[in-house]
Design brief:
1057 residues, alpha/beta, Spore Coat Polysaccharide Biosynthesis Protein SpsA, Chain A, ten-stranded mixed beta sheet, two-stranded antiparallel sheet, 45 helices, 12 strands, 7% strand, globular
Length: 1057
């Protein structure tokens, strides 16, 4: 019997200890019992904290672990007494089994809560003394200061994690003591905790300041370790949101964190019933916008900093510009009589209300005029409440059955139901026609040259150029390194705006949608061999031989080492996985590349700081060692840059224990500013029926959605749910198969200044960025695709932008004016089928709404493309089908109506017209071939040829000639050839083109014409374009003929026969 109990305990604990790769509230990975808490236990965060502490002290004192487990069980019982939620019964059964076995083995008799409290207090003191709590913070502070000079980052990180873990455990112990005390009668509870013990726990609770989770700016919790709160512009922005005289006083029942005062967000939350986490998210968003707007005007005074009126007005007009234009179009009067008479507090109140509405708008965010309509009426309701000077719940948001307020239930959910119903039958329609406007004025923009640098700086630069000594030994052997250096040095001589200091630059986010693609290659994936005995690792070693040798050198291995020798070390295996993943189209490569932005900003802000200090002290120090450890540099970078990856099914992957979830958790641990947003599905029991609730989550924020977020196409819906977690003035859209380079990240400040450039009648709304396709070395087909794409993203988009003025948004890595687009429907459109090419509709929408799209070639981002024939065909099919749907869209119709003749024709030729002409070309070939067949079979051809020979009619001979069939593929390559000449020079272009001809590139491009024509024509005739997953991986296998026939039968084989 004892053996059976032991086996049962081992089985239960094994299940409870299964690591799902979660990140805890404090940034500590959730493992052990805490990792098994069901998501349907709504408020499971506190349960996780308790079970995490129990798991932490299990070996040290099992009795205390048992007490904590019992308390967690009682909390779970209160949340779901009938165990109706998914996984709750199994969780409670397993947890109770462990508790009972502990009681049977360790203790005898009934549970005595008074005894439990005494044991908890005794252990609390022991734990404090053992971990030297009073010395932990000072020790970490000293280490943090010294690490700048010693570079001992590993020791600092270890101390920081230890302190957070200890304080988290103490906090849990103190909370459980208080909860258990409340369960006792007043007589039994009195005297259990002495005044000294109470003061000790209160003091420890105050020291857990940065244990309270926050995203970027710690608004709800005090901190001494994050320098961002010491910036005067941040403090001014926080104080600007505080309660002002015109707001009615909140009821005493409303609780406010001790770290801050009540603010206008608290007022709006109480009145309209916005969700707590959504309010916290938008509070940080507004503070972030205000602080960055203020930084461009200058830092406020350090003593009681105040936000500048111009900063408030700038944010107000930018955020509510679309609402103002909506009112002008209808026409109706805005909720204010005159903006000139508005106080800055009232402006900020309207901005906060707008962002709170937008933050919970879910799929309704795709209808910006609908958001304007909601804001208009809710702002009126808010003004009426303020006139009465009585804080009360808004009638529009009161749930009749319960008397509670809920903006989500009363406003968003009914609209969501309409959108969901409409999306089933067709497109998501907007409320009003977009205001027609015709751009009068200049077609071409006068680009200003950057400011001339100071004469002394020019002399220093000239001296460096004249005295530098080149050596052949200094030229990198690696061709990719040479290419990057060449582009970077050339770009420095291009026209680009002067960069602002980091503290004054525009802030931005990078935004990447991810579904279930490869995050990191596993060891098994690297070792598995194809039918020819070739593994992926062997393939990469042969493609990147010099980089493989460098890798072996970095990990301390001989360059002749066998692969099997690496498999003995877990660290070497992990580094090998990263090395291979950084050369594929993986999420790990993208995350590494985008995090260069943060590294570049830290370096630049650190240099600016030491230079300003050196100028004051009369020194000329340029030492940059330790810039990544500088608290100032890290805080400045966090204020200016955020990276959000929206992993739509990450919650599901965690629950199922998928390797992608563990790999994403690993990336979060290795990258401090890396954020992951995802959809969490929670099964709930309501009125005896099982329902699924959906939440949009970002680690510490959890915002309930009105229903299933995926009503339209997957990728834009994935972007839409998570865009509320982005920050800053701009957002760069990056696909998960892209890369970035440190030297290019240094120029991001210059690029962002283009938003203030003069490019015509309208302000810049999208900055186009050049791409470098890095997959060209994989195969000959990959080289063809790479060169074709390169010609489009350089010569093609250059001409589309200037002089044609019809460049749109063709995907990533363009930089959007974030506020402009989130107030006008987002950065993509999501209607099923019609918006299958979701990205280009962002360009259509931006142009229709009087935006301006530019293109800049002094900065580039890496991009992976499809490398196999079938992958390329699927990609071409997706794009061609998407263009077929564009022909049927109202956006193209409206653009045709609004453009002048020349711009309209340019737009036609460079979008749907290109595919239409391609289809006509291929159809002409069919007509010609059938005609030739008829002439040959009927004998008419021979007689015509005889007549032409007799009459010496060269024109007739030319008409009968078939050589032009072989020129079709050549013609499509003309833009690529011209791009070669411009980018590489004439001689290199000739060599490249000749090499491609020997590899039969003309056959490939002719084949691509057939693929595009088939999918474009089929979409025009029958519709039904759909997203086609291409795989994006290396192709190291042979494709069977049956698979090829299935893919190409209708597009090529049948038509060829």
């Amino acid at each position: 019997m004892e053996r059976a109990e032991t086996n049962w305990e081992r089985l239960v604990r094994a299940a409870l200890r299964s690591d799902r790769g979660r990140a805890g509230t404090y940034g500590i990975p959730v493992t052990g019992i805490a990792g098994a808490v069901p998501t349907c236990l709504g408020n499971n965060v506190h349960i996780e904290e308790i079970l995490r502490a129990a798991d932490e002290i299990q070996d040290e004192d099992p009795r205390i672990a048992r007490i904590l487990c019992e308390h967690a069980y009682s909390l779970a019982q209160k949340l779901d007494p009938n165990s109706e939620g998914r996984g709750v019964l199994q969780f409670k059964t397993g947890l109770m089994s462990v508790i009972r076995q502990k009681l049977a083995k360790k203790e005898v008799g009934a549970i005595d809560r008074s005894q439990d409290i005494a044991r908890l207090l005794e252990f609390y003191k022991r734990y404090r003394e053992k971990n030297k709590v009073d010395e932990l913070r000072e020790e970490e502070k000293r280490l943090r200061e010294s690490v700048i000079y010693t570079g001992n980052l590993g020791e600092l990180e270890r101390k920081s994690i230890l302190r957070k873990r200890v304080h988290a455990t103490l906090r849990v112990l103190g909370t459980v003591v208080q909860d258990l005390t409340k369960e006792l009668s007043p007589d039994a509870a009195s005297g259990l905790i002495s005044e000294e013990e109470k003061r000790m726990m209160e003091k420890d609770a105050e020291m857990t300041e940065d244990v309270v989770a926050y995203n970027i700016i710690p608004i709800d919790c005090p901190t001494t370790t994050n320098d961002i709160v010491s910036f005067s512009e941040v403090r001014a922005a926080i104080s600007a949101l505080q309660y002002f005289r015109g707001l009615p006083r909140l009821p005493s029942s409303v609780t406010i964190p001790e770290a801050r005062n009540a603010d206008m967000m608290d007022f709006l939350q109480y009145v309209f019933g916005f969700q707590k986490d959504s309010v916290s998210n938008q509070r940080e968003n507004v503070v972030h916008l205000l602080a960055n707007e203020q930084s461009r005007l200058g830092k406020p005074s350090e003593n009681e900093p105040k936000i500048d009126d111009h900063a408030v007005r700038g944010v107000f007009y930018k955020c509510l510009d679309n609402y103002i234009k909506w009112c002008e179009y209808l026409p109706i009067r805005p909720v204010w009589s005159s903006t000139n008479d508005l106080e800055k507090e009232r402006m900020l109140l309207y901005v906060c209300l707008y962002f709170l509405i937008w933050g919970e708008g879910a799929n309704v965010r795709f209808l910006p005029e609908c958001i304007c309509y909601i804001f208009h009426h809710m702002a009126r309701e808010m003004d009426e409440i303020m006139r009465e000077q009585t804080a009360k719940q808004a009638a529009s948001c009161v749930v009749t059955a319960t008397g509670e307020t809920s903006f989500l239930d009363q406003v968003v959910s009914p609209l969501y139901g309409i959108v969901a119903a409409v999306s089933t039958y067709g497109n998501l329609t907007e409320w009003d026609e977009i205001r027609r406007s015709r751009a009068n004025g200049r077609l071409f923009a006068n680009i200003r040259w950057p400011k001339e640098p100071h004469m002394i700086e020019m002399i220093k630069r000239l001296h460096s150029l004249l005295t530098i000594k080149e050596s052949a030994a200094s030229v990198p052997k690696n061709l990719e390194a040479r290419r990057r250096l060449q582009f970077f040095t050339n770009s420095l001589f291009m026209r680009m705006p002067a960069a602002k200091p980091v503290s004054e630059m525009l802030s931005f986010s990078v935004f990447t949608p991810y579904y279930s693609e490869t995050v990191l290659y596993t060891l098994a994936e690297l070792q598995v061999k194809n039918e020819d005995g070739i593994s992926l690792l062997f393939y990469l070693q042969k493609i990147f031989p010099d980089e493989w040798k460098n890798f072996l050198y970095r990990i301390g291995r001989d360059e002749n080492s066998e692969d099997s020798e690496l498999f003995d070390s877990p660290n070497d295996i992990l580094e090998l996985r990263f090395w291979a993943s950084y050369r594929g189209q993986t999420l790990a490569r993208t995350v590494r590349g985008m995090m260069y932005y943060r590294k570049a900003l830290m370096l630049q802000s650190y240099i600016e700081k030491i230079q300003s200090e050196a100028a004051l002290n009369g020194n000329a120090s340029t030492e940059t060692q330790g810039f990544e450890l500088s608290p100032y540099a890290r805080a400045q970078a966090d204020l200016k840059f955020t990276y959000v990856v929206t992993c739509q099914i990450y919650g599901k992957q965690k629950a199922e224990g998928k390797p992608q979830a563990a790999d994403i958790a690993l990336l979060m641990q290795r990258n401090e500013a890396f954020r992951v947003a995802f959809i969490d599905e929670v099964e709930m029991i309501k009125n005896g029926k099982t329902t699924t609730e959906y939440y949009s989550k970002l680690e510490i924020y959890s915002i309930k959605l009105p229903g299933q977020p995926k009503l339209g196409e997957g990728k834009p819906e994935n972007q839409n749910h998570a865009i509320v977690f982005t920050r800053g003035n701009a957002v760069q859209t990056i696909d998960m198969n892209q890369d970035n380079y440190f030297e290019e990240a240094l120029k991001m400040r210059n690029l962002l200044e283009e938003f203030h450039g003069d490019y015509g009648l309208h302000k810049v709304s999208i900055l186009g960025v050049r791409e470098h396709v890095f997959t060209g070395s994989v195969s000959s087909l990959a080289l063809f695709m790479s060169n074709q794409e390169t010609s489009f993203v350089t010569l093609g988009q250059r001409v589309l932008c200037n002089p044609l003025k019809v460049r749109m948004h063709y995907g990533h890595p363009d930089v959007f004016d974030r506020v402009f687009h989130i107030t006008r429907g987002g950065i993509s459109k999501a209607s099923r089928v019609i918006n299958i090419s979701e990205d280009i509709y962002a360009g259509f929408n931006s142009t229709l709404r009087q935006g301006n799209i530019t293109h800049h070639e002094y900065i580039q981002v890496g991009k992976g493309r499809d490398v196999g024939l079938n992958q390329i065909a699927l990609f071409e099919g997706k794009v061609a089908g998407g263009n077929g749907e564009q022909v049927l869209s109202r956006d193209v119709y409206r653009l045709g109506q609004l453009f002048d003749f020349f711009r309209m024709m340019s737009f036609y030729v460079t979008t749907v017209g290109f595919y239409f002409c391609t289809m006509l070309t291929v159809l002409t070939v069919y007509i010609f071939l059938y005609g030739k067949t008829y002439l040959a079979l009927s004998g008419i051809g021979e007689s015509i040829q005889t007549r032409a020979d007799v009459l010496d009619n060269t024109a007739l001979n030319a008409a009968l000639n078939t050589q032009f069939l072989f020129q079709i593929g050549m013609v499509t390559a003309v833009p690529m050839i011209l791009g070669f000449i411009l980018e590489q020079g004439f001689l290199s272009a000739v060599v490249s083109f000749t090499t491609m001809q020997m590899q039969l590139c003309s056959v490939f491009f002719t084949f691509s014409l057939g693929t595009r024509t088939h999918y474009f024509g089929r979409t025009i005739l029958h519709g039904g374009a759909k997203y086609r997953a291409t795989g994006r991986g290396f192709v190291v296998r042979h494709i069977k003929f049956a698979e090829n026939y299935r893919l190409y039968s209708r597009s090529h084989f049948v038509k060829g026969c």
